[in-house]
Design brief:
Helix content: over 70%
Number of strands: 0
CATH topology of the largest domain: MetI-like fold
CATH architecture of the largest domain: Orthogonal Bundle
Order of helices and strands: HHHHHHHHHHHHHHHH
Number of domains: 2
Strand content: under 5%
Length: 315
């Protein structure tokens, strides 16, 4: 078990280096002088040259990468051009909103999507199955900005139950009551993603229900509940867990449309704003952290596989 996980972790090192090379190359593949692009058309040649020297753009490309990559390994992602403070600090300040959104949205997705998918599979082709499948297709087809605006109109403007936008920091204020600002965004994100989990859980369980060992389990006298939970649901979780894991990372790495609709200070808006401001150190830092998050989630999913399917440990 430990040997398998150690091999998987070591295999991430070349991927991380390749991701770093690609992220670093992004700036230098842009046409023109990166320093001039950052400062804009109004910058003087002296200002451009000063920025080039400050950021090391006047050095050979391999020296620049070595300097940047060494800093990354030490936790130094450079300094933001716009915010005038370390990139990692800028990302951490915006990460609070995205992490809370990802956690609560994922909780809604799992609580709603998996049970409904199980019911649809167990009651295949029944009225409940048709109803849930139709509702899932409807939720999946809704644009998130349209759903967000309508939820805001109903619950914030008409009923006045919830705030319409913004998110005061919980870490700074210490007020858990601020979580009410995330209810509408989380519902907006959970609706289409729950539809995906419903359909995937249903399809996976239907495939397993046709397997011979399910018939054998029933022939041994096991109850329907035991068959569905122990044999059908567990074996169908392998594909579902993969989607859940990467959906979580996708939510945590920023949902630009939802964050824009609800004016949330998250990672997604930070990337868009940094592109508009030409703040490339922030863009590089965010993209690299997102890449690492996907790699770690892939490792965690593989770790979960070893519990769901012991044959993976043997292989």
């Amino acid at each position: 078990m430990l040997k398998y996980m150690a091999k998987r972790f070591l295999s991430m090192i070349p991927t991380f280096i390749l991701a770093a090379v690609m992220v670093f190359s992004f700036m230098h593949m842009m046409p023109g002088d990166p320093a001039a692009v950052m400062l804009g058309d109004t910058a003087t040649p002296e200002q451009v040259q000063a920025l080039r020297v400050a950021m090391g753009f006047d050095r050979p490309i391999h020296v620049q990468f070595s300097r940047w990559f060494t800093g990354i390994l030490q936790g130094d992602f450079g300094n933001s051009i716009f915010f005038h403070k370390p990139v990692l600090r800028v990302i951490v300040e915006r990460a609070e909103t995205s992490i809370f959104i990802a956690v609560f949205s994922m909780a809604l997705i799992v609580v709603v999507g998996i049970p409904i998918g199980m019911i649809s599979a167990i009651r295949y082709n029944s009225v409940a199955d048709q109803t849930f499948s139709g509702a899932a297709m409807l939720a999946a087809s809704m644009p998130t900005f349209w759903l967000g605006l309508n939820l805001m109109l109903i619950f914030a403007v008409v009923l006045g139950w919830l705030p319409s936008s913004g998110f005061p920091s919980i870490l700074e204020s210490g007020r858990l009551n601020n979580l009410k600002y995330l209810i509408l965004p989380c519902v907006t994100l959970a609706a289409p993603n729950s539809a995906l989990i419903i359909r995937l859980t249903r399809a996976s369980m239907l495939d397993v229900l046709r397997e011979g060992y399910v018939t054998t389990a029933r022939a041994k006298g096991l109850t329907e509940l035991a068959v569905n939970l122990k044999h059908v649901f567990r074996n169908s979780l392998i594909s579902v867990i993969s989607v859940i894991g990467f959906t979580f990372v996708g939510l945590a790495s920023g949902t630009v449309i939802t964050e824009t609709v609800f004016s949330l200070p998250g990672i997604g808006r930070l990337v868009v704003e940094s592109v508009l401001r030409r703040d490339y150190p922030v863009i590089q830092g965010v993209i690299l952290i997102i890449a690492v998050a996907y790699m770690l989630m892939n490792l965690l999913i593989d770790y979960c596989y070893t519990f769901l399917d012991p044959r993976i440990r043997i292989s």
